[in-house]
């Protein structure tokens, strides 16, 4: 079998959030009042997270500074996964016995 996947590939970082984690963050870091358009602080991150949990929605927001990125990185244990269209197809092909050449 020969397949060429020529679409976007990205690396995702996933974490299943628990109520205890949210409570812990919220107790030491009160969230912003309204959901932000970009994440410029840990408070914005928490406000966006709570908004998406409340709405049952997902989203992508830019993290605007390195300190906030470091905060999110160390606040959770992340599982990294290959994603994007080509990444998803490559994962399925690999599980079906496809071998890259």
In words, what does this structure look like?
The protein is mainly alpha-helical and 101 residues long. It has two domains: 1-17 and 82-101, no CATH class; 18-75, no CATH class. 46% of the residues lie in helices and 10% in strands. The protein contains four helices and two strands; from the N terminus they run βαααβα. It has helices spanning 19-28, 42-55, 66-75, 84-95; strands spanning 10-14, 79-83. The N and C termini lie close together (11 Å). The model has no long low-confidence stretch (mean pLDDT 85).
Regarding quaternary structure, how should these chains be classified? single chain
Strand portion: 5-15%
Number of helices: 4
How would you sum up the global shape? elongated
Poorly predicted residue ranges: none
Largest sheet: 2 strands, antiparallel
Count structural domains: 2
Distance between the termini: 11 Å
- N-to-C series of helices and strands: EHHHEH
Considering DSSP H and I runs of 4 or more, what fraction of the residues is helical?
Answer: 40-55%
Mean of pLDDT: 85
Q: How do the strands of the widest beta sheet line up side by side?
A: 1-2
Structural class: mainly alpha
Rounded to an integer in angstroms, the radius of gyration calculated over CA atoms is 17 Å
User: Based on DSSP secondary structure assignment, what is the total number of beta strands?
Assistant: 2
Topology:
Elements: E1 10-14, H1 19-28, H2 42-55, H3 66-75, E2 79-83, H4 84-95
Antiparallel strand pairs: 1-2
Highlighted features:
2 strands; single chain; 10% strand; 2 domains; mainly alpha; elongated; 46% helix; 4 helices; 101 residues
